[in-house]
Amino acid sequence: MMMRRGVTKAVRSVLGHAGSRGFSTGAVATEQATARIFRANSGRVSEAWIRFPVIGVRNFSTVTLDAKTEKKAETGSVGGAAGGGRDKEIVSYWGVSPAKVTKEDGGEWRWSCFRPWETYKSNLSIDLKKHHAPVTFLDKVAYWTVKSLRYPTDLFFQRRYGCRAMMLETVAAVPGMVGGMLLHCKSLRQFEHSGGWIKVLLEEAENERMHLMTFMEVAKPRWYERALVFTVQGVFFNAYFMAYVISPKLAHRVVGYLEEEAIHSYTEFLKELDKGNIENVPAPAIAIDYWQLPQDATLRDVVMVVRADEAHHRDVNHFASDIHYQGHELKKAPAPLGYH
């Protein structure tokens, strides 16, 4: 008798809490709950299972949202450009969503991949004709390696400079990341500062990546070009990694010569634009904001600032190689932070 009373109380307790709000791994609107009941019968203990409906129970793994929050989540948007989309807003328990960013004029900032304080006006007065004459054996190795890579590139792209720029930027963004990563690890191992060179090289990689994001708005890669990126980037990443580990001065010299070739390629790009062989379309919105270009900027303006960026990368990498050639580590010379 006492066992039956205990069972009855247990069932009433479960039913009493059927409309409560709990926490588990899923959301349940209408479900059946199961109670396991033990009963005594003639000195033996047996068990039975009973099912009953549970209505109105909502369970969440981490957080329970009210109707207002859910409605807001359905109307929000996320992406490379903030605002204006129909994608649902990402709602997180951890509260790490970035604060709203605005332009200087108070307008909404639409890019999540970079911020207003990361934009700049490119220095177009930089000397584009500078060249490091190869003197040492490693210089000549770097120079002729880069020259030998130019021939298959010219053969593949010919005068499709939009596609050429887009594809080559997928490779150009690799050296800065590799160099910055290796200097970062070295700084951790030796418990010392890098002299700012980690940041310089990572900024170079990010700048080259922004070139790619820009030219993707101008030329769309074909399927076989995407496949080519996988192959070339994989080979180049590992080759440059090994070169930097063995001889940083060789690695930086290679990049310096690559940037010299990039300047030449963008100069040819400008010639085709001036001849009318390539349409001088309006500049992509991302380029206007990133380089602080006027609203009526064109593709020619974009190529001009990208070419100037490549000239700055040329200077930085030849300078880094010279530091190593003179028997010093990069940390001994102040890094050219903010050199655009």
UniProtKB/TrEMBL annotation:
GO terms for cellular component: mitochondrial inner membrane; respiratory chain complex. It is an enzyme of class 1 (oxidoreductase). Its EC number is 1.10.3.11. Keywords: Electron transport, Iron, Membrane, Metal-binding, Mitochondrion, Mitochondrion inner membrane, Oxidoreductase, Respiratory chain, Transit peptide, Transmembrane, Transmembrane helix, Transport. CDD domains: AOX. Its main location: mitochondrion. Binds 2 iron ions per subunit. GO terms for molecular function: alternative oxidase activity; metal ion binding; superoxide-generating NADPH oxidase activity; ubiquinol:oxygen oxidoreductase activity. It is found in: Mitochondrion inner membrane. It is a multi-pass membrane protein. It comes from the Eukaryota. Homodimer; disulfide-linked. This is Ubiquinol oxidase. It comes from Actinidia chinensis var. chinensis (Chinese soft-hair kiwi). The lineage of its organism: Eukaryota, Viridiplantae, Streptophyta, Embryophyta, Tracheophyta.
